[in-house]
Amino acid sequence: MFIRLPHKLIVILGPTASGKSELAVKLALQLSSWQAKKLYEINGAEIISADSRQVYKGLNIGSGKITKKEMKNVPHHLLDVASPKKTFTVSQYQKLAKKALKKIIKKNKLPVICGGTGLYIDALIYGKEFPEVPPQLKLRKKLEKKSTEKLFKQLQKLDLRRAQNIDKHNRRRLIRALEIIITTKKPVPNIATIDSSNISFAHILKIGIKKSPEKLKKLIAKRLKKRLKQGLIKEVKNLHYKQNLSWQRLDNFGLEYRYISRYLAGLISKTEMIQTLENEIYRYAKRQMTWFKKDKNIIWINSLQKAFSIIRDWLGL
User: Fold this and answer.
1) Measuring CA to CA, which residue among 129, 287, 156 is closest to residue 216?
2) Residues of the chain with confidence (pLDDT) below 50
């Protein structure tokens, strides 16, 4: 007997290196299996990425972008949709992701949002409109004269919540955040202040992958080692020498792209690069968790079996 469902949406989130992409694919395949058994009237699932670096073409290994093989024929959206030479905003993400959602729903499939960029997730599922603030050249020139440290301190004064979740070493993001806040005279929308009437889905299930600090540190170190073997340094070289991305532009992408660029530019040694990356990636994971912990609707899990059990109950199977 079929159970006809209203529009539902599953979100798979968590810190970097926690295994979100793998879980999302396994979930989509499991949904297809349940559908084959005629348990409910949905034609499987499709995945929408919510990652601020995976939207860029060419940022593959360093961003942890899922490969065609790893997708296992599960359709993925919002990957490789922007040129790395141009800035891609949360407003642009929101518009493209909404289009993807509509396409998935028309196919009578279940949308699964997967990623670690909390701002992207909130922008999509809560329907809050984000302002399209064009570049303010005079303001930018004024801000660019300030040190990175001073920019971060200014952001802390104007929007403490945004400051807690931003990469404080990323001048481009700091300047852009200040540009938006100063121009609109408003902070970045807070999930706690968003009117729930904006939600267009009858049911939203948020599943967060939880790892202990010790486990997460080990996963980060193991993954970094794997990515270096896969050709991460070569990827950064290609972006600079073949695609003509400046060292500064690569630095703005943060983490792997920032510190490998500095290594290739002769600013740090390979050992320093690896040690710094392990520490900075872990700090980034902590910032992600700071964002997610404010959302009390997230159900935290530590196993695949637990995730499937929660989803079955949620679907009423």
Assistant:
1) 287
2) 1-5, 191-199
